[in-house]
Design a protein that fits this description.
- The structure is a single chain.
- The protein has about 140 residues and is of the alpha+beta class.
- It is about 20% helix and about 35% strand.
- It is built from two helices and nine strands.
- The strands form two sheets. The protein has a five-stranded mixed sheet, with no helix packed on it. It has a four-stranded antiparallel sheet with strand order 2-9-4-7, with helices on one face.
- Helix 1 runs antiparallel to helix 2.
């Protein structure tokens, strides 16, 4: 099976793209694909199966997955879920690059996961409310 490239454009007025996962209603599968931005899938309810090189990981509420730049991945969401997706352009990390424009994130489940998930949920709540001045709060949380 081949993979496809996905072009990602940040939300207007923000240095990243944030949205509710398009597979929220279930019966959804996104075949293998890749992109340059770093991607975070934060599951708030339901479950999704996430494939990356090395195997499949089942994500349940409170779990999140970090997909590195150019990492081939696929998603299977057979059941309804609420998953917040944040896609961060690689350029935002250029001050931290190792070698030739390279950075790699690793996530090991731990105590800070609850704090991280709380921040992501608050970002989404403020962003989706769209109140006057909310963009400043979203950027602050980011």
């Amino acid at each position: 099976m081949t993979s496809s490239y996905e072009l990602i454009t940040p939300n207007e007025g923000f240095p990243f793209k944030m949205f509710l996962f398009e597979g929220k209603d279930g019966s959804y599968r996104r075949e293998k694909h890749w992109h340059r931005p770093i991607e975070i899938f934060a599951v708030c309810s339901g479950e999704i199966d996430f494939w990356v090189e090395g195997g499949v990981r089942e994500l349940k509420p409170g779990n999140f997955m970090i997909v590195n730049s150019n990492e081939i991945h696929a998603i299977d969401a057979p059941l309804p879920n609420e998953t917040i997706v944040i896609q961060i352009p690689l350029q935002l990390f250029e001050d931290y690059f190792l070698g030739e424009q390279f950075i790699w994130f690793v996530h090991e489940a731990g105590a800070a996961d609850e704090t991280f998930m709380s921040s992501v949920k608050e970002m989404w709540s403020v962003y989706s409310a769209g109140d006057y001045g909310s963009s400043l709060m979203v950027l602050s949380l980011f």
